[in-house]
Amino acid sequence: MGRSWQLLRRLERLIQRVPTWLAVLLSVLVLAAIAFWIQEDLVIERPRDLLGREALKIFFDNAESFAIVAAVILYFKGAPDRKAQKHYEAWRIIDNAAAAKVSTSYARFQALQDLHRDGVPLRSLEAAGANLAQIHLTNADLQSANLRGADLQEAHLSHANLAQAMLRGATLEKARLKGANLRGANLQRANLRDADLTGADLRGANLKGASLRGAELWKAQFLGADLEEAELKWAELAGSELYGAKLHQTVMPDGSVEQRAMEYWADRV
């Protein structure tokens, strides 16, 4: 399915490069040539024979087919304009929901997924307090997005770019953040319980008071991350993942509390 979609996209881009009039003209000429070729009783020896009664009759008999092909080409050629209009409407829905401070909006939810599916970056998105539970935004570009207090419970955000994103107080319980880029993100007081952060980049992230209880942190990076008063009880990790993290009043995976303000370099979990 994915390969077929890619081939269709390539065909669409190829058609867009050809001028509309030339694409229609070539298509009609090719179809006319085929129509003439399959007529066994039609003999064309000179160019003027193409204007003969029999040739013109064949051409007009197939006019409907020519018109259909021309319409299909015009439809493909108009795809960029329709897509641009679709994206404009999607952003209008998203902006209106943010301006009205609506927490739950199915229209916004769907608009975000549609934009992402079309490869549109969602950088600097304004969706504070939005209900986006279980949304599918794998590989999405959400750099510097404002998702403060948003509900992203069980959201599909694997390999998403959330660098410098505002996620303070957000609910990311059981969210799929495998391989996500969260460098410099503000996750203060965020709920990341049972989230999958395997291989995630959390370098320089603010995780003060965040809950990472039961989270999967295998091969995650926390260098320079602030884990003051954060909870990592029952979190799954080897230990080296926390190297360079700033700890203070931090609940460690074994339930102990690191009272001192320190950077974590020791082999202990």
Describe the structure.
With 269 residues, this protein is mainly alpha-helical. The protein contains 6 helices and 4 strands. The strands form 2 sheets. It has a two-stranded antiparallel sheet. Strands 2-3 form a two-stranded antiparallel sheet. Strand 2 and strand 3 form a beta hairpin. The model has no long low-confidence stretch (mean pLDDT 87).
What are the defining features of this structure?
269 residues; Pectate Lyase C-like; two-stranded antiparallel sheet
Mean pLDDT metric: 87
Q: Pairing-aware structural class of the strands and helices?
A: mainly alpha
Biggest sheet character: 2 strands, antiparallel
CATH class category label of the largest domain: Mainly Beta
Radius of gyration over C-alpha positions, nearest whole angstrom: 29 Å
* Uncertain stretches of 5 or more adjacent residues: none
Measured as a percent range, the helix fraction is 25-40%
- CATH homologous superfamily designation of the largest domain: E3 ubiquitin-protein ligase SopA
Instruction: Enter the CATH topology name of the largest domain.
Output: Pectate Lyase C-like
| DSSP strand content | under 5%
What's the total count of β strands? Answer: 4
Number of helices: 6
